[in-house]
């Protein structure tokens, strides 16, 4: 991959250490009182350690809420596992307890830097590249996200976060410069959480529903090469880059509300379909997100001339409409003038189909088996070449046959990754 970003090493600035964390953690406590639960009427609310031990987190700034902490703890597990599986810095962008994006810190091409609105920031650290990718995969869904970072947050990453609409961030530490930048965000109210990277939770987890306690062993399944070694298709050539993408897909799904599928390309999720009752609906939803990610790289989109006053979020919204079926909403008279310096041509269906034909070598992961081959047919339309799924359907033979028709490589993991 050609790249212009990520040339700088991570820890060039002074970091204050306490154990393995960056910024010195505030005094720990056994519980944190919250304003309310999921909704304002759900009071009282708190997070606490049932065994009386200290919480493994400290709030360095702001007042995180109930859903903020749910996103933070799920996101932290995801990026911690991504880092362990790939040996690369990782970032995740969470919304409502599912990731909108997840990525590792690979270099950004000129095109990716442009569509992620970071081309003006110059050379970025690997961690900043990871967050640019995680945020950029589905910027519409990431609006107002909670961020998880695998490594100490550096100044590059903080500068990127500071100008995005976000609820908060969790990381194992922060450099002095990064913490100062983040504390200035949202008029001083930005939520900043520091987690003890050495914390290991109990092997049994519990939660209550309707006053009834559920108990289960934690999902400690390692996502590694051995899990992905059972290739069931005729084509068994799995490049190292595709293996990494399979790991990213499955680790992302491990912390995504089921049913779920995840499209990954070159170190980042490009489409996540979460919380659908039908698997084909997951595949279609995530496939459309992956298509939109690739369409944003088309010349028709890169050459859009926005008015100078249009902010990043409004540009994202405009692009989303422009590449969709309701493009007239931003191109009709009286509307295009609010967004563009000059009226762009229609991005026709034929042009979009031709451009999407160039998206290849995409990886697809699924948290449970594909019951029908229609999922494979839809995945192929979004450039999927590599698939990781549990297998176990009575129609596995038809799914494999469909993969063979398109010369795909599919691995059966033999294990489900439901998350609720």
Give an overview in words:
The protein is built from 14 helices and 15 strands. The chain has helices spanning 66-86, 110-115, 126-136, 139-142, 155-162, 176-183, 240-254, 279-295, 299-302, 312-322, 328-331, 349-356, 374-381, 396-405; strands spanning 31-34, 45-48, 57-61, 90-95, 98-104, 145-149, 166-171, 191-195, 204-209, 212-217, 260-265, 268-274, 362-366, 384-389, 409-412. It has a six-stranded mixed β-sheet. The chain has a five-stranded mixed β-sheet with strand order 12-11-13-14-15, with helices on both faces. The two termini are 36 Å apart. The model is unreliable at 1-5 and 7-27 (pLDDT under 50).
Number of helices: 14
Strand order of the largest sheet: 3-8-7-6-4-5
CA radius of gyration is: 22 Å
Order of helices and strands: EEEHEEHHHEHEHEEEHEEHHHHHEHEHE
Q: Which geometry do the CA atoms define? A: globular
Please provide the count of β strands. Answer: 15
Q: How widely separated are the two ends?
A: 36 Å
* Poorly predicted regions: 1-5, 7-27
Average pLDDT, all residues: 93
What level of helicity do the residues show? 25-40%
Structural class: alpha/beta
Determine the oligomeric state from the structure: single chain
Strand content: 15-25%
Largest sheet report = 6 strands, mixed
């Amino acid at each position: 991959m050609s790249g212009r970003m990520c040339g700088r090493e991570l820890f060039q600035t002074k970091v204050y250490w306490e154990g393995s964390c960056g910024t010195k953690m505030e005094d720990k406590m056994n519980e944190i009182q919250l304003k309310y639960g999921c909704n304002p009427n759900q009071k009282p609310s708190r997070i606490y350690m049932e065994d009386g031990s200290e919480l493994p987190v400290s709030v360095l700034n702001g007042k995180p809420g109930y859903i903020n902490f749910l996103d933070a703890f799920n996101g932290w597990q995801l990026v911690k596992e991504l880092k362990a599986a790939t040996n690369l810095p990782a970032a995740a962008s969470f919304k409502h307890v599912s990731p909108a994006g997840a990525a590792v810190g690979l270099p950004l091409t000129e095109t990716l830097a442009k569509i992620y609105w970071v081309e003006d920031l110059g050379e970025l650290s690997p961690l900043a590249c990871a967050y640019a990718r995680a945020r950029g995969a589905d910027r519409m869904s990431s609006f107002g996200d909670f961020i998880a970072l695998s490594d100490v947050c550096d100044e590059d990453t903080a500068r990127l976060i500071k100008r995005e609409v976000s609820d908060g961030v969790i990381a194992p530490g922060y450099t002095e410069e990064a913490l100062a930048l983040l504390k200035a965000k949202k008029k001083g109210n930005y939520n900043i959480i520091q987690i003890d990277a050495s914390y290991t939770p109990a092997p049994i987890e519990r939660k209550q529903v309707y006053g009834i306690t559920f108990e289960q062993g934690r999902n400690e399944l390692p996502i590694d090469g051995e899990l992905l070694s059972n290739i069931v298709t005729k084509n068994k050539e799995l490049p190292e880059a595709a293996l990494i993408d399979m790991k990213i897909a499955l680790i992302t799904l491990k912390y995504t509300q089921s049913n779920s599928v995840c499209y990954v390309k070159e170190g980042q999720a490009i489409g996540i379909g979460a919380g659908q009752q039908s698997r084909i609906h997951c595949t279609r939803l995530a496939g459309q997100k992956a298509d939109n990610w690739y369409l944003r790289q088309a010349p028709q989109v890169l050459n859009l001339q926005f008015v100078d006053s249009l902010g990043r979020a409004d540009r994202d919204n405009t692009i989303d409409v422009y590449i969709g079926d309701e493009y007239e909403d931003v191109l009709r008279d009286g509307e295009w003038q609010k967004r563009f310096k000059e009226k762009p041509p229609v991005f026709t269906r034929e042009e979009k189909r031709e451009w999407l034909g160039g998206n290849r070598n995409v990886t697809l992961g699924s948290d449970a088996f594909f019951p029908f081959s229609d999922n494979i047919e839809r995945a192929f339309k979004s450039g999927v070449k590599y698939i990781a799924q549990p297998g176990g359907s009575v129609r596995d033979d038809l799914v494999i046959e469909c993969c063979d028709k398109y010369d795909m490589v599919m691995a059966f993991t033999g294990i489900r990754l439901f998350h609720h």
